[in-house]
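Final report, Chapter 2: Outcomes

The project's central promise was a pipeline that accepts a single protein chain and returns its three-dimensional structure in a standardized token representation, suitable for archiving and comparison. That pipeline is now operational. To close this chapter, we reproduce one record exactly as it appears in the project archive, with the input sequence first and the structure output second.
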Amino acid sequence: MPEHDRFPVPLSSSAAAAAPSPAARLRALRPDWLADPKVWRTEVLAGLVVALALIPEAISFSIIAGVDPAIGLFASFTMAVTISVVGGRRAMISAATGAVALVIGPLNREHGLGYLVAAVILAGLFQIVLGALGVAKLMRFVPRSVMVGFVNALAVLIFVAQVPEMHDVPWPVYPLIAAGLALMVFFPKVTKVVPAPLVSIVTLTVLTVAAGIAVPTVGDKGALPSSLPVPGLPDVPFTMDTLTTIAPYALAMALVGLMESLMTAKLVDDITDTRSSKTRESIGQGIANIVTGFFGGMGGCAMIGQTMINVKVSGARTRLSTFLAGAFLMVLCIVFGPVVSDIPMAALVAVMVMVSFATFDWHSIAPKTLRRMPAGEIAVMAVTVVVVVATSNLAIGVVVGSLTAMVVFARRVAHLADVTAVVDPDGTTVVYSVTGELFFASSNDLVGRFRYATDPDRVVIDLSAAHIWDASSVAALDAVETKYAQRGKTVEIVGLNRPSAALHGRLTGELTGH
């Protein structure tokens, strides 16, 4: 073996100078956006706006769950920071949410905070398992009409959630909300360097404090935490009874959290024209909930309203904004608590109303669009919106909307199957040509499309233009053959494609007990 193959050859001084240094190699691996000051400014300011919007939301969701406001704020902090690292969708915000609070609130009221925290950890484990099993792939079965209904229902819920903040309040609240909306509409026409929502929040806060205007503030929602959360185990007995108590709540939380997170990820994909890893996001949500549970938080999932603030209003596109939203949240609570407590709720209401308006798909309800859309698609969209608004649960609305879309699709495809008959000139054979997709909906009336009494002794059923999808279709063909056999007539089925022939050959004659 040559000597230079066995031992490294020392670099010459010029070659050594040309070789990249470790720092240079690290810079080569660095994402391009890290070197762009504009991206940094956008991401930092977006994270700050989201953090400000998270505070009253997290406190409100804590009240829904029946826990101290600090529990919801801690959950928002740990969820956002953790998901920024392990999540599959950049720039999406995860924190404490109303859907999760509604699911696990009864557990807290009946058994206490320790059981709630244990359920959050178990829900995280469920989400990791479901993510690994590929539950994210089910998102491809959610049709566009359900997605549009989901978005519109979300916009309605965001607006409805602000109505209590505009009811039975001092009159200055209304002009403050109007001023905040005006700032967010017109300020971007002057400059987009600073997010308009941040300008609106700062301006209205300074105005109310300086003028001494008495209006509801963030501090009225609850006390902010004064220290960071400390990790620990849930205060519950580690027994089978505990497991059976928390398991139903944990599974419900896992499913609701994944549904909302995956739908939000899909929405952000569409807005940003980028793809995300839904499997990684599913597993990441589980990891984030486990971390949140060990820090005593109430758990959570993707927050659609705050994500819209981050992505659509502020223009964030990277994980940095998500991380900073969580980090700023704790800094604002612990370091700047007194200042944050003075922020008027009117400023945050104005931000959320603007988010609601920007989120709603106005094109979907335009008369021109409705005239062109199939009635079934409009019905699916309307059902999704109504169910979500009625239940205040996006996951239930998506499930019901998807089931409605399946029924509409089945009814539509069922009418595409057709049967035509041609009798040979000699009158000894009749050929039935079946066209279309044969499945449970279209094959139900197949048996009644044949003339059993008057047909000749030989019957040919040509399926070259059809496809057999399920056992119902095989059973229908068996019933046709049986009816002809009872009259002493023979049936020959021809033209089956390979998958149809395999299914028919495996099931024919096996679907009835007599």
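Archive annotation: DSSP finds 21 helices and six strands in the chain.
This record, like all others produced under the grant, will remain available to the consortium after the project formally closes.
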